[in-house]
UniProtKB/TrEMBL annotation:
<dbReference type="InterPro" id="IPR026028">
    <property type="entry name" value="V-type_ATPase_116kDa_su_euka"/>
</dbReference>
<feature type="transmembrane region" description="Helical">
    <location>
        <begin position="769"/>
        <end position="790"/>
    </location>
</feature>
<keyword id="KW-1133">Transmembrane helix</keyword>
<feature type="transmembrane region" description="Helical">
    <location>
        <begin position="448"/>
        <end position="466"/>
    </location>
</feature>
<feature type="transmembrane region" description="Helical">
    <location>
        <begin position="648"/>
        <end position="666"/>
    </location>
</feature>
<dbReference type="InterPro" id="IPR002490">
    <property type="entry name" value="V-ATPase_116kDa_su"/>
</dbReference>
<protein>
    <recommendedName>
        <fullName>V-type proton ATPase subunit a</fullName>
    </recommendedName>
</protein>
<dbReference type="GO" id="GO:0007035">
    <property type="term" value="P:vacuolar acidification"/>
</dbReference>
<keyword id="KW-0813">Transport</keyword>
<dbReference type="GO" id="GO:0046961">
    <property type="term" value="F:proton-transporting ATPase activity, rotational mechanism"/>
</dbReference>
<keyword id="KW-0375">Hydrogen ion transport</keyword>
<keyword id="KW-0472">Membrane</keyword>
<keyword id="KW-0812">Transmembrane</keyword>
<feature type="transmembrane region" description="Helical">
    <location>
        <begin position="403"/>
        <end position="427"/>
    </location>
</feature>
<dbReference type="GO" id="GO:0051117">
    <property type="term" value="F:ATPase binding"/>
</dbReference>
<feature type="transmembrane region" description="Helical">
    <location>
        <begin position="536"/>
        <end position="557"/>
    </location>
</feature>
<keyword id="KW-0406">Ion transport</keyword>
Length: 836
């Protein structure tokens, strides 16, 4: 759990493996997922590495598996998921068996597919011929009709009808063409043959299957009558150009009938053979579908192992592989055990050697996470990966993130809807994960299910504090206010206020949250809630920023940056405390010192502590910064909130301003002094040792102050000082977004209620019930889509900004890089997502 607060201590190790045992050892490390290997051959081309042939063999196996998978998906055969645990990476000798199996399956499937395609093509031709014989019979009957003699005269001419005492007959070709090509085909025939051909066509009602693409296509039968060989050649070329298929068609009706009977017999035989071919193909694919997921895992594991082995170096004897890797210091024993298991599995007699190495390189950042914390950690990583061993904001974000969100989203009803959705995703976690839904939006929501659950629960809490549920209030404990006006007076006066100094107020506050009577206060409800939420926002913001500055102290102490404590942390905390924390204290002093004076309303002895004399905190703070004192326009009131306030405020401002030059010049001055000492003594300066000191024996990111020009150090420090001083002001104001979004959410909820549901509830009779049903549907849709989803997203983004900018900028550098171990689990997950 300690690594949640600060990243794991990492160590660079050198690993020596015997060539025979290297595969098994890397396989065990892949199952463990705790080792990040470095590339020791960065200048070597990928095609010149030792195990490039094995990687190519794996690529080839993967290609064959993808081909099998495509065929299985095309047939709609379900692929069995891997039961229980994933299979282990097979031994190198098993690669030959896997290759032979995949080769056999691919060849068999390709052969079956080729035979099936040839049979389908033959079947298509016979089917088209069947339709031609059936449709052309009608065309021939029409041409034999005496009424068609005029068309023959047009084609043959009157003299050509009789030649040598015998009747001349028209030549013809018959075939099949795609239906959408018919108009262009007809135009081309007419233009090319100058109207000397006669085209008849009929549509084939049933779609035909294209054997190459398996698509259903619509075709038409056509027959073209013409005279002479020249036209015949021209017609055939046009048919060829339009990819029409021509078929022989006998002239005699008896021959056509005989051919049709033969075609039908052959079609029946083909149907039988095609069915047997498809059954055989289906059996092959069903057998492959049972194991294909298993095979994919095995091949990807083998490929990952050889990819990793390509990062290793060979020693001079070619019998030993040398690797360098980052490992968590706490897991050294676990890694040693895994290496031992791999050596035993390979049957090697030489044990692997794992040595720690000293390095000045920045180690990777590794935070152990579980399914609950990983979502919050990803929010931090989206800003930047923590510098090695830097304070991790994630554990604090688990509480502060949903709380700040809830301050903006506070509504018991909307929070309950959000919490219910988050709870459902958490409760159905395993079934939903098993479905492997590939929707990107769904995966974002599902990945943040615990964040959504906490945001909903916290929103329910703040909704109770605000006493707000769908813009209405709950009167659980009974209001502390009572109405002492009679009905006549109430009817005559629309705007009335209840006086807290009178019997209108019971002098006992509402036990929990806001009194429900404020729901009825149309005149000053917003004024009261604004003042309340505005002050709460500033209080929360100042405490949040103070906490961030305090976390920077933890960083300085851990990294032994002694000078940073003196010239950065102490001036920063003093500056923030004396100005903004003092403003928060003024708010509490105002709440405690001024209020109702029951029974003494208007009396001079009590007026100084009444709300009449309560000063404006904002005006007081502005006057404090400007060293200004306003003239007391209320003689009955004290000019200050407590004795010595003016002098104390001046002292606070002067001390806060003196902190600025300390932050600006302190560190550069110290570095200059240490450089002078180094120049005189010729040794490492203490300041830089303090800056770069190690903790727990682990290397830390080196500071480069001693390599920089002193002017660059001044510029760097000036930027940070200006950013902090101006940021303290702007960041404090930035927390007012808590008030602004809370107000907007409450007002939108109230508008939705008043404009829709209230009108539905006020309608009566049978029609009113129907109207209420329709209105409730609209109100519910607006509540979920706008008030929960859109407002929730808006509050989420504002909360994210408050954490990234206002909170993390006080202590979090985020200049590290992630620990990315060699892990089969991660590799298989990314491969699975890539497929989807």
């Amino acid at each position: 759990m300690g690594s949640l607060f600060r990243s794991e201590e990492m160590t660079l190790c050198q690993l020596f493996l015997q060539s025979e045992a290297a595969y098994a050892c890397v396989s065990e490390l892949g199952e463990l997922g705790l080792v990040q290997f470095r590339d020791l051959n960065p200048d070597v081309n990928a095609f010149q590495r030792k195990f490039v042939n094995e990687v190519r063999r794996c690529d080839e196996m993967e290609r064959k598996l993808r081909y099998l998978e495509k065929e299985i998906r095309r047939d709609g055969i379900p692929m069995l998921e891997i039961p229980g645990e994933c299979p282990e990476a097979p031994q190198p000798r098993e690669m030959i068996d896997l290759e032979a199996t995949f080769e056999k399956l691919e060849n068999e499937l390709r052969e079956v597919n080729q035979n099936a395609e040839a049979l389908k093509r033959n079947y298509l031709e016979l089917t088209e011929l069947k339709h031609i014989l059936r449709k052309t019979q009608v065309f021939f009957d029409e041409m034999a009709d005496p009424s068609r003699e005029e068309e023959q005269v047009t084609l043959l001419g009157e003299e050509g009808l009789m030649a040598g005492g015998q009747a001349l007959k028209l030549g013809f070709v018959a075939g099949v063409i795609l239906r959408e090509r018919i108009p262009a085909f007809e135009r081309m025939l007419w233009r090319a043959c100058r109207g000397n051909v006669f085209l008849r066509q009929a549509e084939i009602d049933t779609p035909l299957e294209d054997p190459s693409s398996s698509d259903q296509v619509y075709k038409s039968v056509f027959i073209i009558f013409f005279q002479g060989d020249q036209l015949k050649t021209r017609v055939k070329k046009i048919c060829e150009g339009f990819r029409a298929t021509l078929y022989p068609c006998p002239e005699a009706p008896a021959d056509r009938r005989e051919m049709a009977m033969g075609v039908m017999t052959r079609i029946e035989d083909l149907n039988t053979v095609l069915g047997q071919t498809q059954d055989h193909r289906h059996r092959v694919l069903v057998a492959a579908a049972k194991n294909i997921k298993n095979w994919f895992v095995k091949v990807r594991k083998i490929k990952a192992i050889y990819h990793t082995l390509n990062l290793f170096n060979l020693d001079v004897t070619q019998k030993c592989l040398i690797a360098e890797c980052w490992v968590p210091a706490l897991d050294m024993e676990t890694i040693q055990l895994a290496l031992r298991r791999g050596t035993e599995r390979s049957g090697s007699s030489v044990p692997p050697i794992l040595n720690r190495m000293e390095t000045l390189e920045d180690p990777p950042t590794y935070n152990r996470n579980n399914k609950f914390t990983i979502a919050f950690q990803n929010l931090i990583y989206a800003y930047g990966v923590a510098t090695y061993r830097e304070v991790n904001p994630a554990p604090y974000t688990i509480i502060t993130f949903p709380f700040l969100f809830a301050v903006m989203f506070g509504d018991l009803g909307h929070g309950a809807l959000m919490a219910a959705f988050g709870f459902w995703m958490c409760y159905k976690e395993k079934p939903l994960q098993a479905k492997k839904i590939d929707s990107e939006i769904w995966n974002i929501f599902f990945g943040g299910r615990y964040i959504i659950l906490l945001m909903g629960l916290f929103s329910m809490y703040t909704g109770l504090i605000y006493n707000d549920i769908f813009s209405k209030s709950l009167n659980i404990f009974g209001s502390s206010w009572q109405n002492n006006y009679n009905k006549t007076f109430l009817a005559e006066n629309k705007l009335l206020q209840l006086n807290p100094d009178s019997e209108d107020y019971l002098q006992v506050p509402y036990p929990f949250g806001i009194d429900p009577v404020w729901q009825l206060a149309e005149a000053n409800k917003i004024i009261f809630m604004n003042a309340y939420k505005m002050k709460i926002s500033i209080i929360i913001g100042v405490f949040h920023m103070l906490f961030g500055v305090c976390l920077s102290l933890w960083n300085h102490i851990y990294f032994k940056r002694r000078i940073s404590i003196y010239v950065e942390f102490i001036p920063q905390i003093i500056f923030l405390t004396l100005l903004f924390f003092y403003m928060v204290l003024l708010m509490f002093i105002k709440w405690v010192s001024y209020g109702a004076t029951p029974g003494h309303f208007g009396e001079e002895d009590y007026v100084k502590t009444s709300s009449f004399c309560a000063p404006s905190i904002l005006i007081t703070f502005i006057n404090m910064m400007l060293f200004k004192t306003d003239e007391n326009t209320r003689p009955k009131c004290d000019p200050t909130m407590f004795a010595g306030q003016i002098g104390l405020q001046k002292f606070f401002v002067i001390v806060a301003l003196l902190c600025v030059p300390v932050m600006l010049f302190g560190k550069p001055y110290f570095i200059m002094q240490e450089r002078k000492k180094r120049a005189l003594q010729g040794q490492q300066p203490l300041a830089e040792t303090a800056e770069n000191g190690t903790a727990g024996g682990a290397p830390v990111p080196a500071s480069h102050h001693h390599d920089e020009d002193i002017s660059e150090v001044f510029i760097h420090q000036a930027i940070h000082t200006i950013e902090y001083v101006l940021g303290s002001i702007s960041h404090t104001a930035s927390y007012l977004r808590l008030w602004a979004l809370s107000l907007a959410h409450a007002q939108l909820a109230e508008v939705a209620w008043n404009m829709l549901l209230r009108k539905g509830l006020m309608s009566g009779g049978y029609e009113g019930g129907v109207f209420l049903y329709v209105v409730f549907a609209g109100w519910a849709a607006i509540s979920i889509s706008i008030l929960v989803l859109m407002e929730g997203l808006s509050a989420f983004l504002h909360t994210l900004r408050l954490h990234w900018v206002e909170f993390q900028s006080k202590f979090y550098a985020g200049e590290g890089y992630l620990f990315q171990p060699f892990s089969f689990e991660v590799i298989l997950d990314s491969a699975g997502q890539g497929e989807e």
